[in-house]
Amino acid sequence: MTLTADAKGVYVISVTPFTDSGEIDFDSLDRVVDFYFDKGADGLTILGMMGEAPKLTQAESRAVADRVIRRAGGKPVVVGVSAPGLAAIGELGRAVMDMGAAGCMVTTPGSLKTDPQIHGYFAQVARTLGDDVPIVLQDFPLSTGVHISDEVLGRIIDEVPQVVMLKHEDWPGLAKITRLRAAEAEGRRRISVLCGNGGVFLPEEIARGADGAMTGFGFPEMLADVVRLAAAGDMDRAQDIFDAYLPLVRYEQQPGAGLAVRKYVLAKRGAIGSAALRAPGAGLAREAIAEVERLLARQEKRLKELN
Known about the structure:
Keywords: Lyase. The protein has 307 residues and is an alpha/beta fold. It has one domain (9-235): Alpha-Beta Barrel (TIM Barrel), CATH 3.20.20.70. Helices cover 50% and strands 11% of the residues. The chain contains 12 helices and 8 strands. Strands 1-2-3-4-5-6-7-8 form an 8-stranded parallel beta barrel, surrounded by 6 helices. α4 packs parallel to α6. The protein is globular, with a radius of gyration of 18 Å.
């Protein structure tokens, strides 16, 4: 199944499980793939920033991709292939597409400084990967430092047909979704828009015209429920459910600590065997664990009240 501009729903950004000694835990990788789909994911995205992709070797990246794609059993898996050079992007991208990936996610390297450089980069990526490889453009200026204007994004959509999806992580960025959909209403080619940033603006993003979420959270069922309800027009119920999880979503937004929180919750729920991050990266301090546990208790209480 290859990605198209009509993709909708929730493509969970998967963690990469490690043992306490730092080796990839392939048994936990199987388990967390099953967990995400059991909790309502429509697809997965692997080897993203929250999947600790920069800490993997090229061989490990291929092994993880192969294992997840096989475990997904035909459900769509997008693979992050971002790298400093185009050769590495092409090598990993072609390899995972041969394995059965649905598409490749690519973000902007921080070296891009001008609008022509940004536009030219994605044209180069498309030529490197090939005409038949769907591309997810990850727009994440908070991490990359590269800001993609509406005009440049429009040129990429117009001139690089392999770009079928925007992973929208601009912040503030709700107006960008509105302007993108308005341009499509005037005749521009439609692309799918799935949103990241930990889902912190998810109800508003769906209301603005996003097709779903491409992010991670220790409770992926929240992402699935909010997207489903908001898409059906039941915004009040979607907001009520989102609000019940919002304190934990907010806690996850701490730079440098968010992934440790997510892995702690996933391990607590039995989705992975260990909450370990690969070095460099540390787990949660005792005080942070106590804070997360308090948030989880309050979340459970609120969800019971919402029935």
